Amino acid sequence: MNDVGTESPSPFHKGERLVQERMGVRDKVEKLGRRAIRDFLPDQHREFYAELPFVLIGTVDGQGRPWTSLVPGRVGFMTTPDDRTLDVGMRPLFGDPLNETLTEGAHVGVLGIQPHSRRRNRMTGRVGAVRPDGFTITVDRSFGNCPRYIQTRDVEVLPGIDRPETVRAVSRSDAIDEPVRGIIERADTLFIATAHLDEREAESQGADVSHRGGKPGFVKVEDERSFAFPDFSGNLHFNTVGNILLHPKAGFLFADFDTGDLVYLTGGAEIIWDGEMIEAFRGAQRLIRFSADEVIRVERSLPLRFTFGEYSPLLENTGSWTQASRIVAADKAWSAVLEKSIVNGGSSRA
Q1: Is the alpha carbon torsion for 136, 142, 147, 148 positive or negative?
Q2: Burial class (CB in 10 A: 0-12, 13-18, 19+), 84
Q3: pTM: predicted TM-score of the whole model, two decimal places
Q4: Could you give the 3-state DSSP secondary structure of residue 76?
Q5: Residue 161 · residue 73 · CB < 8 Å
Q6: Is residue 348 over pLDDT 60?
Q7: How buried is 221 (Cβ within 10 angstroms: 0-12 exposed, 13-18 middle, 19+ buried)?
Q8: How would residue 5 be classed by pLDDT, with cut points 50, 70 and 90?
Q9: What's the pLDDT score for residue 346?
């Protein structure tokens, strides 16, 4: 009885609706969204969050810049006193921007993800109480997500998980240095936070955090300030893309699952809809390009050990930057041959 009713406003804001229309799925997704997006946590979701050793949190700082954070804890550190409240019984890690953005009333996006089973659920809401030992989130919307592009990993909790405040080496910059570049270019997983902050659509305002996966190297560092990656097909809600369309900023989190280093980035974001590289990159529906304003790397921050299992089988249907570049180069070479042939042919007939 708590489901979004047919007489209620659309569960999607203007940016999401525009992208759904562009992709030709607007009516279909509206119907699905009204059934699947709730203003409470179903029992299945409540049980799910209680089983996780970490959760992803998306927030927005005072400059309107999104950040993605990871809060780890022993299984059971998240509880749901009722179906509209998520209680997170841990504080942010040392060096995490969440230490600054976690304030009462702040918009938050939540992503619960279970790597070994590829299960994931999302919600949006606002921060309630902030305590020395954690914080609460009041639910605005919650929904499930498909398991696409998630690489399986087993997760082991390390003793340091009980001491999130432990001081770590932190580097800050406005550019992507070599250590950060290496982590990004090796990644098969990233987490991205975006936001919709238009007060004219108060009901759909908020922050969001989502997952993207690909073959190692699916994120291409273009220079010391920017990178790009293909956006593959998803659940058709277009939360991330719709947010960027209206508020062209994003925050990223990359984890080095071997060393435990965490990299936080925030800056501008844009959607690349068309172009030869998109046509050549198998599986890509568009590209997302990011330009960094601030980069933070915290060394050996992650108090979890991840053991790789297997890549998502859906990645077999996706390409790579190398393959795409070869296709583009081959097309250009063939076009040059055809143009030369036409020119020479024209000359011989003259």
Answers
A1: negative
A2: middle
A3: 0.93
A4: coil
A5: yes
A6: no
A7: middle
A8: very low
A9: 55
Q: Which two tokens stand for residue 287?
A: 């590209």
* Residues near 37 by beta carbon (within 8 Å), at least 6 away in sequence: 4, 11, 141, 142, 143
Can you tell me the distance from the alpha carbon of 24 to that of 73, in angstroms, rounded to the nearest whole number?
41
Q: What percent of the chain has pLDDT over 90?
A: 87
Give per-residue burial for 41-55: e unless 16+ CB within 10 Å, then b: bbeebbebbeebbbb
Residue written as token pair 């097909």: 233
3-state secondary structure of 213: strand
Structural tokens at position 206: 């908020």
Q: How far apart are CA 57 and CA 41, in angstroms?
A: 17
Backbone phi, psi, residue 10, to 5°: -60, 140
Q: Is the pLDDT of residue 330 over 90?
A: no
Per the prediction, the chain carries an average pLDDT of: 93
14-318 topology per CATH: Pnp Oxidase; Chain A (2.30.110)
Orientation of helix 14-22 relative to helix 239-246, angle to 10°: 110
Domain map (residue ranges) of the chain:
14-318, 320-350
- Dump strand ranges (E) for the chain: 54-60, 66-72, 78-82, 85-88, 107-114, 119-131, 134-145, 153-157, 170-173, 189-196, 206-213, 220-221, 226-231, 249-255, 262-272, 286-298, 304-308
Contact 124, 207 (CB under 8 A): yes
